[in-house]
Amino acid sequence: MNIEGLDYNTQRERLILPEYGREIQNMVDHAVGLPTKEERQRCAQTIVNIMERMYSKTLDTADNKRKLWDHLAIMSDFKLDIDYPYDVSDARKMKTKPEPLSYPMAHIPVRHYGKLVFELFEKLKSMPAGDERDELMRLTANQMKRDLVQWGHSSNEEEKIADDMARFTDGVIQLDLDRFKFEKITERSQQGQRSKKKK
Q1: CA 88, 91, 93: angle at the middle one, nearest 5?
Q2: Any residues with CB less than 8 A from the CB of 34 and at least 6 apart, and which?
Q3: How far apart are CA 53 and CA 107, in angstroms?
Q4: pTM to 2 decimals?
Q5: CA 125 vs CA 47, 49, 109: distances in Å
Q6: Is there a contact between 48 and 31 (Cβ–Cβ < 8 Å)?
Q7: What's the DSSP call for residue 101?
Q8: Is the sign of the CA dihedral 9, 15, 19, 22 positive or negative?
Q9: I want to staple 148 with a disulfide (CB 3.0 to 4.6 A). Which of 29, 45, 153, 194 is the partner?
Q10: Which tens digit of pLDDT belongs to each residue from 53-92?
């Protein structure tokens, strides 16, 4: 259906900063086309005042006023020839997309333990026997148990922990289950810890 004067946003030119809407963009385009610098300056000031009213609750500081002028420069594609009250050269950096971050793809043989537990295994392998290594072994074993409880593994997780610790430390750490006492860890206590982190 074609009705004169009606068109869809999908048929219109894409907005540079959609949060300000098409009317503000049209005002900016109008300001760019004005013949004299004085007219462009007056028009730009009016546009910034309108933008400020749109976000009056969040834009109280001078730094936020500067952002409005930066946004005006971006919406005009830096073609608006006026005397800006602020330096808008940094606005070009805002317009450029940042480079995508590379995601660290470390190989973890058993994903439910996570990368940090495998770093602890490496540390345990190289540590000399003594109280410090025993304490790190205790902390690591209890963290492994928490991980297994969280991932819902079977009830014989203590044997699994002893086997995994021996396997991933190349046999350096042998957990004696007759003497070693795990902390009491339940799914309910795990949920309590997670809710504390959220607060």
Answers
A1: 135
A2: 40, 43
A3: 52
A4: 0.48
A5: 66, 65, 17
A6: no
A7: P
A8: negative
A9: 153
A10: 887 766 566 678 888 899 999 999 899 999 998 888 888 7
